[in-house]
């Protein structure tokens, strides 16, 4: 059974998909509340291949896939643990137009895709030269008419910045 977009972002279904007492379960609910899912999704193409670089636990990948079934979402992250959690949640939620791959964004071959989301990844890349190299790779991989969304942490408000750094360390 495939759940609707609203139920994927429902606190109860997220906790059930990721595990009620797990870090990933708590993070899933936090992410669903704080991240501007709808705004970013509206900017991404409704059909085609869309990469979610630095997908973490796959919460946004699952949202993108469940909202528009014409999208093939590919979530990329360096953490096998996070990818395992994302794959498990996709299975529990019945979302089949998403897959998750363990890979390093800087070593990942240039994907050819219709859209790409880079969510809280740039600050993890070591230095400005690596960030610029990564962005050049992203631009090369987007098909004509494709779209790129880059979201990264800001230092204001300070509580969100500190919370994001804390989440990065414990997860």
How does the SSE layout of this entry go?
Blueprint: H1 5-8, H2 11-18, H3 23-34, H4 37-43, E1 48-53, H5 59-67, E2 71-77, H6 80-93, E3 98-102, E4 113-119, H7 127-141, E5 142-151, H8 158-170
Parallel strand pairs: 1-2, 1-4, 2-3, 4-5
Short descriptors:
globular, alpha/beta, 171 residues, 20% strand
Structural class of the secondary elements? alpha/beta
The H-and-E topology, N to C, reads as: HHHHEHEHEEHEH
Low-confidence stretches: 1-7
Instruction: Kindly report the spatial arrangement of strands forming the biggest sheet.
Output: 3-2-1-4-5
Shape: globular
Evaluate the radius of gyration: 15 Å
How many distinct beta strands? 5
Gist of the model:
The chain is of the alpha/beta class and 171 residues long.
Structure characterization notes:
- Helix 7 (127-141) links the parallel strand 4 and strand 5.
- It is globular, with a radius of gyration of 15 Å.
- Strands 3-2-1-4-5 form a five-stranded parallel β-sheet.
- It is of the alpha/beta class and 171 residues long.
- The protein contains eight helices and five strands.
């Amino acid at each position: 059974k495939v759940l609707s977009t609203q139920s994927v972002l429902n606190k109860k279904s997220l906790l059930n998909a990721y595990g009620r007492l797990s870090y990933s379960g708590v993070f899933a609910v936090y992410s669903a509340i704080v991240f501007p899912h709808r705004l970013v999704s509206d900017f991404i193409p409704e059909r085609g291949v869309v990469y979610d670089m630095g997908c973490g636990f796959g919460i946004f990948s699952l949202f993108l896939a469940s909202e528009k079934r014409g999208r093939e979402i590919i979530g990329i992250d360096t953490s096998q643990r996070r990818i395992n959690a994302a794959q498990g949640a996709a299975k529990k939620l019945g979302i089949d137009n998403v897959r998750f791959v363990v890979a390093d964004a800087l070593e990942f071959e240039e994907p050819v895709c219709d859209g790409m989301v880079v969510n809280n990844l740039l600050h993890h890349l070591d230095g400005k030269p690596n960030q610029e190299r990564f962005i050049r790779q992203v631009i090369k991989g987007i098909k004509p008419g494709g779209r790129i969304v880059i979201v990264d942490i800001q230092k204001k408000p300070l509580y969100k910045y500190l919370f994001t750094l804390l989440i990065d360390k414990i997860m």
